[in-house]
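Support request from a user on the community tier.

User writes: "When I paste my structure tokens into the form, the page sometimes reloads and wipes my input. The last time it worked, I copied everything first. Here is what I submitted, just in case something in the input itself triggers the reload:"
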């Protein structure tokens, strides 16, 4: 992967003292920069409210959406806007971003604190603060549902979220955030969902619980994309692929968002910092609070740098996170983890044929056929993927993790989901009648596993 020039170096004494970016010899000192993408959630990008050369302070709103599903963004530093241009985004595309050079001060807007806010005040604060759930949906929009909400579920089974946010002093704030979500959604109760093996968190939460709130221990970890499944497991109410937990009368939130809700509503601070777990091949792995827009490279340097040459950087966990093409991408509102893998840890094996072991089927939490769907996705037959309910996939990554043939099941499934969302259709005449499913045990080459090149993907069209 492409690393910045100094990626292989560990932190210098000067960096440790100043926590600034490397200063090349003979040049003016580089000031700390943040790159804040105008799109950080599932929805529309916002429009910049500032221009190049404007000065901004911490917490100042610098981007606002025009439609109802856009999320405001705020400056995480005090300084000067030096550019508004496309920059690499951690979800692997370029997005328009506001680049701010910090002046090194902590000047900020006046944060307005609040006590016992009403439902309307909470909703206003959440809209202003630009809070996003870890699955990318704006918290404010989730709360605007017309469905009757009975319960707020706080998912504390997502390992990255828990390790980053559930530190001692944050637990009380998280519970306060849950209470605010209950008020905002008119829910009469809340349940904190904890993995049964995480006894420490369960007891820390239990000791601080208020009325109408209980802890429920579960056997599995629910990733942010598994909110519908979590809602179903808790209520036994089925939710359609296009539905939301509100269909089962619940709101699902996370420690990350509950903490942000508490800060926004009671302390008046918008979402400008996130707590991160920095782990893997790092000199000093740690949990730290980072300004949104800080590059992964700077975060790693502030943890002592890489402990050797990195092989891969992953955002938000190794199972279903996103591998980065460079460490120059910036931390966004939904970043909870940065993991550096060494070259030997990175999977380089060649993908083999499916041996029909069905391990992927056994582990799939939504009971679909991952290997079969991935096979269709591999040859561009997205209509078949649709018939096999590819849109029900919650992208947990387990089917790729357990596959003995190292098949890229998750990547292929994501590809098919994206293609279907974009209305991809294969013209009849370009479909491949020779493609068939079946046993791989004979010696004949099977069309099912033909390489992607030249197969219908290129012959398809968008409606
Ligand atoms: S990633 Fe694989 S195992 Fe997980 S839900 Fe999707 S198909 Fe099932
Ligand atoms: S895709 Fe992998 S895990 Fe699934 S049946 Fe084939 S070999 Fe087994």
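"...and here is what came back when it finally went through:"
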């Amino acid at each position: 992967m492409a690393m910045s020039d100094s990626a292989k170096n560990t932190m210098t004494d000067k960096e440790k003292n100043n926590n600034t970016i490397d200063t090349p010899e003979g040049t003016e000192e580089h000031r700390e920069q943040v790159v804040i993408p105008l799109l950080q959630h599932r929805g529309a990008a916002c429009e910049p409210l500032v221009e190049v050369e404007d000065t901004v302070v911490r917490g100042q709103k610098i981007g606002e959406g025009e439609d109802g599903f856009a999320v405001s963004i705020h400056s995480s530093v005090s300084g000067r806007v030096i550019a508004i241009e496309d920059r690499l985004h951690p979800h692997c595309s370029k997005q328009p971003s506001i680049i701010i050079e910090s002046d090194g001060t902590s000047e900020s807007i006046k944060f307005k604190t609040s006590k016992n806010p009403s439902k309307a005040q909470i909703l206003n604060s959440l809209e202003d603060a630009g809070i996003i759930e870890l699955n990318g949906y704006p918290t404010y929009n989730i709360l605007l549902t017309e469905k009757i909400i009975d319960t707020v579920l706080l998912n504390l089974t997502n390992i990255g979220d828990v390790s980053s946010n559930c530190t001692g002093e944050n637990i009380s704030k998280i519970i306060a955030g849950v209470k605010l979500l209950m008020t905002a959604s008119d829910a009469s109760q809340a349940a904190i969902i904890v993995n049964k093996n995480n006894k420490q968190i369960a007891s820390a939460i239990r000791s601080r619980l208020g009325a109408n709130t209980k802890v429920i221990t579960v056997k599995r970890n629910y990733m942010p994309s598994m909110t519908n499944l979590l809602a179903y497991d808790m209520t036994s109410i089925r939710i359609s692929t296009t539905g939301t937990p509100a269909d089962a009368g619940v709101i699902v939130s996370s420690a990350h968002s509950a903490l942000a809700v508490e800060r926004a509503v009671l302390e008046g601070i918008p979402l400008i910092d996130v707590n991160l777990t920095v782990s893997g091949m790092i000199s000093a792995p740690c949990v730290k609070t980072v300004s949104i827009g800080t590059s992964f490279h700077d975060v790693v340097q502030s943890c002592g740098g890489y402990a050797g040459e990195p092989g891969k950087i992953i955002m938000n966990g190794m199972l279903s996170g996103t591998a980065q093409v460079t460490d120059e991408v910036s931390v966004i509102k939904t970043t909870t983890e940065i993991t550096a893998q060494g070259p030997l840890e990175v999977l380089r094996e060649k993908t083999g044929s499916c041996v029909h072991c069905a391990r992927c089927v056994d582990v799939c939490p939504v009971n679909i056929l991952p290997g079969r769907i991935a096979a269709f996705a591999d040859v561009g037959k997205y209509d078949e993927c649709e018939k096999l309910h590819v849109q029900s996939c919650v992208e947990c990554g387990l089917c790729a993790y357990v596959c003995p043939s190292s098949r890229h099941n998750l990547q292929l499934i994501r590809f098919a989901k994206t293609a279907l969302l974009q209305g991809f259709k294969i013209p009849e005449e370009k479909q491949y009648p020779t493609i068939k499913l079946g046993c791989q045990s004979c010696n004949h080459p099977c069309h099912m596993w033909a390489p992607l090149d030249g197969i219908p993907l290129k012959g398809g069209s968008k409606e």
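Agent notes: The reload is a front-end session timeout and is unrelated to the input. The first strand starts at residue 33 and ends at 37. Residues 5-30, 432-463 have pLDDT under 50 and may be disordered. Escalated to web team.
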